[in-house]
Design goal:
The chain is an alpha/beta fold. The chain has helices at about 15-35, 80-95, 110-120, and strands at about 60-65, 70-75, 75-80, 100-105, 130. The protein has a five-stranded mixed sheet. The longest helix has 22 residues, at about 15-35. The chain is elongated, with a radius of gyration of 25 Å.
Length: about 140
């Protein structure tokens, strides 16, 4: 029996699937970057400290903003204390150790911050951290 030896064509490198993956990754990172900046764009000037931890966000962390006048904003939506309680109760029932980042304006009265903390603890959320920023270096 005589076998014919066929030369195989060299395999071509497919660019289309790689380009699709690159664009998919690019889209994913742009969208997640926008979501991570969603709550930090509000006009809240958090207190400064030199000893604060790095502002790394925990996955699933919910940000509560307290403005200087005491109004509470979550996901760019103003909430009353009752609405905040309902939202926190729902989060506490869904996630056992729900992290909360409290961003209070530096000019906010202490009582407004205590009201938000009290509302969170009544709803069953204890994992609360506070947002701060590093002081600006003096101008030369």
């Amino acid at each position: 029996m005589k076998f014919q030896k066929k030369e195989l064509e060299p395999a071509a490198f497919q660019m289309a699937p790689m380009i699709d993956i690159v664009f998919l990754l690019l889209t994913f990172f742009i969208i997640t970057w926008q979501w991570s900046r969603n709550e930090t764009e509000l006009d809240v000037s958090v207190p400064t400290t030199a000893e604060g931890a790095d502002p790394l966000r925990v996955q699933g962390e919910k940000i509560i903003n307290v403005l200087a006048d005491g109004s509470v904003i979550v996901d760019k939506t103003p909430l009353s204390q009752e609405q905040l309680f309902v939202l926190m109760k729902e989060l506490a029932s869904l996630y056992k150790n729900q992290p909360i980042r409290l961003r209070a304006d530096a000019k906010t009265e202490y009582q407004h911050v205590i009201n938000v903390i009290s509302t969170c603890t009544k709803a069953g959320i204890w994992n609360i951290s506070f947002a701060t920023q590093r002081p600006q270096p003096p101008a030369p």
